[in-house]
């Protein structure tokens, strides 16, 4: 009798039972204070967060990191909650990096289902046996078994990886039912068709970090009370002035004086409340980076710089709403008044720091 692995399709060409959605892209780079992700060659599903060269770890970041690690080391899932632009994702990756374990990242999505977290059947594995024990008799036996594929939550629970679930409230609440047993009983219950297991015990090194934005309403679902009760939630507010200034100087190459003018302008605009979309540190970085690149003076006397600030900030005042011309002019005048206060006349020409000059030299 001879057994020959003569599948109708090769393992790399499994027949799919249902059309599959394209894989969701992972964030190639976290914003805010500066973390990047690189794939681990040994495990394509995992990533390794590493600080960028311009990563800034201020006292505020150190305090949030220390508090978060305290919960994680005690075995509790961690939840960073805060508005857009506060650096939640970067902070989550930074804390995950301190644990020293491979990281798996999931991004919340309304189309994300339990199968996307746990796993599903993907295609078939065929096996064909040709029996010619009696030379003039041929016996054929063919079997086809569905193939189970672990997805990210199952992989993280099985191997003891760190799971970073970014913007988890963008997923439907029922998707997270499977997490309740993971956090309480330390058991991940699997569908009946999952291999030969009906559950797996969660690895003792498994940790989970969640982020969410409580202020956003578009595409966001309310969190389940049962899940929220299991999370250790830390609220993340906007960075203080010192942190914004350090980040702007490191990320844009502007001198401290010029960066401070832009930081103070955006912070004053945020404090005014005269907007529909909150201006965050990303707006400061946008203005500072373009000003440094174009050699603009950080002054109301430079028309190019004034136009840059209007482009970056004025759109946040209206968010596309149709307003009367008088209303627009009033809001524009208020923004120009802030510019006159924080970026006054006779401002020095933009000074590019030594770090930025070295960066430009390397690029050339």
Automatic annotation (TrEMBL):
GO terms for cellular component: cytoplasm; gas vesicle. Residues 10-20 have a biased composition (Polar residues). Keywords: ATP-binding, Cytoplasm, Gas vesicle, Hydrolase, Nucleotide-binding. Coiled coil: none annotated. It holds the Pfam family AAA_5. InterPro entries: AAA+_ATPase, ATPase_dyneun-rel_AAA, CbbQ/NirQ/NorQ/GpvN, Gas-vesicle_GvpN, P-loop_NTPase. Belongs to the CbbQ/NirQ/NorQ/GpvN family. One of its GO terms (biological process) is gas vesicle organization. It catalyses: ATP + H2O = ADP + phosphate + H(+). One of its GO terms (molecular function) is ATP binding. It comes from Aquabacter spiritensis. Residues 74-242 form the AAA+ ATPase domain. SMART domains: AAA. This is Gas vesicle protein GvpN. The keyword ATP-binding applies. It comes from the Bacteria. Residues 1-27 are annotated as: Disordered. It is found in: Cytoplasm; Gas vesicle.
């Amino acid at each position: 009798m001879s057994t020959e692995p003569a599948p109708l399709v090769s393992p790399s060409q499994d027949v799919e039972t249902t059309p599959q959605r394209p894989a969701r892209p992972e964030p190639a780079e976290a914003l805010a204070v500066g973390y990047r992700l690189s794939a681990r060659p040994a495990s394509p599903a995992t990533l390794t967060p590493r600080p960028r060269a311009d990563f800034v770890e201020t006292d505020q970041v150190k305090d949030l990191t220390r508090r978060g690690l305290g919960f994680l080391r005690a075995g509790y899932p961690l939840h960073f909650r805060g508005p857009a632009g506060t650096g939640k994702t970067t902070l989550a990756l930074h804390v995950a990096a301190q644990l020293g374990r491979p990281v798996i990242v999931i991004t919340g999505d309304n189309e994300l289902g339990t199968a996307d977290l746990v796993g599903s059947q993907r295609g078939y594995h065929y096996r064909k046996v040709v029996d010619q024990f009696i030379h003039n008799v041929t016996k054929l036996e063919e079997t086809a078994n569905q193939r189970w594929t672990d997805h990210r939550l199952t992989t993280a629970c099985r191997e003891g990886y760190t799971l970073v679930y970014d913007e988890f409230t963008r997923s439907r609440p029922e998707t997270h039912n499977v997490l309740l047993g993971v956090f309480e009983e330390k058991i991940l219950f699997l569908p009946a068709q999952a291999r030969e297991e009906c559950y797996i015990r969660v690895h003792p090194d498994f940790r989970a970090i969640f982020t969410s934005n409580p202020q956003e309403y578009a595409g966001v679902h309310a969190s389940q009370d049962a899940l929220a009760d299991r999370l250790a939630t830390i609220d993340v507010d906007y960075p203080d002035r010192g942190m914004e200034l350090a980040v702007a100087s490191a990320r844009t190459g502007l001198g401290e004086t010029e960066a401070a003018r832009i930081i103070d302008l955006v912070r004053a605009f945020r404090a005014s409340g005269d907007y529909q979309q909150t201006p965050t540190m990303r707006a400061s970085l946008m203005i500072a980076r373009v000003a440094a690149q174009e050699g603009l003076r950080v002054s109301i006397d430079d028309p190019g710089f004034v136009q840059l600030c209007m482009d970056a900030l004025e759109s946040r005042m209206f968010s596309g709403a149709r307003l009367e011309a008088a209303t627009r002019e009033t809001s524009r005048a208020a923004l120009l008044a802030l510019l006159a206060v924080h970026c006054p006349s006779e401002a020095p020409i933009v000074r590019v720091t030594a770090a930025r000059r070295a960066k430009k030299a390397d690029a050339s």
